[in-house]
Write a structure and sequence with these properties.
This protein is an alpha/beta fold. Helix content is about 25%, strand content about 25%. It has two domains: about 1-125 and about 280-310, Medium-chain alcohol dehydrogenases, catalytic domain (Quinone Oxidoreductase, Chain A, domain 1, Alpha-Beta Complex); about 130-260, 3-Layer(aba) Sandwich (Rossmann fold).
Length: about 325
């Protein structure tokens, strides 16, 4: 099978197309013919060496965690899927493996793809939507009538967080740039803050939950806009914020928490339900063929993506 592969730590220029042996599913696994994958910042951050002491990679390595395709082989002990099922998943392997013609997927992290989505749309969902869901539900404890602030509302995680926040019944305020304001509003955000025009993200009433998908401003920049027992959830964990999370417990009831996405088929099935109910839809910025994965990684590195970057693995486009 064809696959894109990093040979070592470095920039996307190291990505090369290679021929690999098609894997076989073990017990509890399924083999999926990959039609589409997606790019997330974690893909290139793991492979450029910046996270080598936290998330070391064994090379050679096929990147990509988001996968959408069809089941072509089933390992022993799997009864959730049948041959031909259209599934999507966030792979649970250490460094991914989605950017290849076939991928072995643990059955417990996969779910049937929503019928109304094509492979590209399905591939855009797993890691980012799971991150948004687990951030708001599990770490933020978000519930109806609370006020939610999302910094980076037009990005991969942020645009799902807006929709999930609304599905939970929250009042959602999203922060984005001028060019993305209309798009963010169309996703259901009750209020949009243009960070190029307003550096203070307060909006009258304090926020109960905050999801920071950018993690550039220091925590103190948001503290006064948050309620007394608010929860701030970060998708990154810089040292300064880790220290602040410990110190905060000494003098405040506010909490800083950090999300690490957990691949979970049941959570993905819940996301499928939201899609089927018309409460969640993916936004795709660009689709690249598999051989242009390096270009897709560079575009992700630019920080300019609006929604998700998708990889056409099977040449369906």
């Amino acid at each position: 099978m064809k696959a894109m592969q990093y040979s070592g730590y470095g920039d996307p220029s190291l990505l090369k197309m290679v021929e690999m042996e098609t894997p076989r599913p073990a017990a509890g696994q399924i083999l999926v013919k990959v039609h589409a994958a997606a790019v997330n910042p974690i893909d290139w951050k793991m492979h450029d060496g910046s996270l080598r002491y936290v998330l070391p990679v064994k090379f050679p390595s096929v990147p990509g965690f988001d996968v959408a395709g069809q089941v072509v082989e089933i390992g022993p002990g799997v009864d959730r899927f049948t041959i031909g099922d259209r599934i999507y998943a966030c792979l649970s392997g250490r460094s991914g493996g989605a950017c290849a013609e076939y991928a072995v997927v643990d059955a417990g992290v996969a779910a049937l793809s929503p019928q109304q989505l094509d492979f590209f749309q399905a591939a855009a969902i797993p890691l980012a939507a799971l991150t948004a869901l687990q951030s708001l539900r599990d770490l933020g404890g978000l519930h109806a009538d609370q006020r939610l602030l999302i910094v980076g509302g037009s990005g991969g995680v942020g645009h799902f967080a807006i929709q999930i926040g609304k599905a939970f019944g929250a009042h959602v305020t999203a922060v984005c740039s001028t060019r993305n304001a209309d798009r963010v509003a169309a996703l259901g955000s009750d209020q949009v803050i243009d960070y190029k025009k307003q550096s203070d993200f307060s909006s009258g009433e304090p926020y109960d939950v905050m999801l920071d998908c950018v993690v550039e401003k220091p925590y103190r920049a948001f503290q006064q806009a948050m309620s007394r027992e608010a929860v701030y959830v970060a998708v990154l964990f810089p040292l300064r914020l880790l220290v602040q999370s410990v110190l905060l417990r000494l003098y405040s009831k506010q909490r800083i928490r950090f999300v690490i996405c957990k691949a979970n088929g049941d959570d993905l099935a819940l996301i499928s339900k939201l899609v089927s109910e018309g409460k969640l839809r993916p936004l795709i910025d660009r689709v690249y063929p598999l051989h242009e994965l390096a270009t897709a990684h560079r575009y992700s590195q630019s920080g300019r993506a609006r929604g998700k970057i998708v990889i056409d693995v099977a040449g369906d486009a």
